[in-house]
Amino acid sequence: MTHVITAPCIGEKAGECVDVCPVDCIIEGEDQFFIDPDLCIDCGACTAVCPVDAIFYEDDLLPEDQPFVEKAKQFFMEA
């Protein structure tokens, strides 16, 4: 996994990240967007446009944001 979308996106889902993603790896879930780790090319375009600062590189996540890695994995396992 490269980038992860975290708590500020829940309920917000502004969508600017979807518009700038060059590989269409950001998928809308029920309560937030998710980044498909198999498609993401780690360009970082999404982080620059996120209006709620919800997108982080996986290695830079705070401990309280770690559950969002598993949430994203679960989302793509069910998709």
TrEMBL record:
InterPro entries: 4Fe4S_Fe-S-bd (IPR017896), 4Fe4S_Fe_S_CS (IPR017900), 7Fe_ferredoxin (IPR000813), RnfB_subfamily (IPR050294). Keywords: 4Fe-4S, Electron transport, Iron, Iron-sulfur, Metal-binding, Transport. One of its GO terms (molecular function) is metal ion binding. Its cofactor is [4Fe-4S] cluster; [3Fe-4S] cluster. SUPFAM superfamilies: 4Fe-4S ferredoxins. Residues 1-30, 31-60 form the 4Fe-4S ferredoxin-type domain. Ferredoxins are iron-sulfur proteins that transfer electrons in a wide variety of metabolic reactions. This is Ferredoxin. It comes from Bhargavaea cecembensis DSE10. The lineage of its organism: Bacteria, Bacillati, Bacillota, Bacilli, Bacillales.
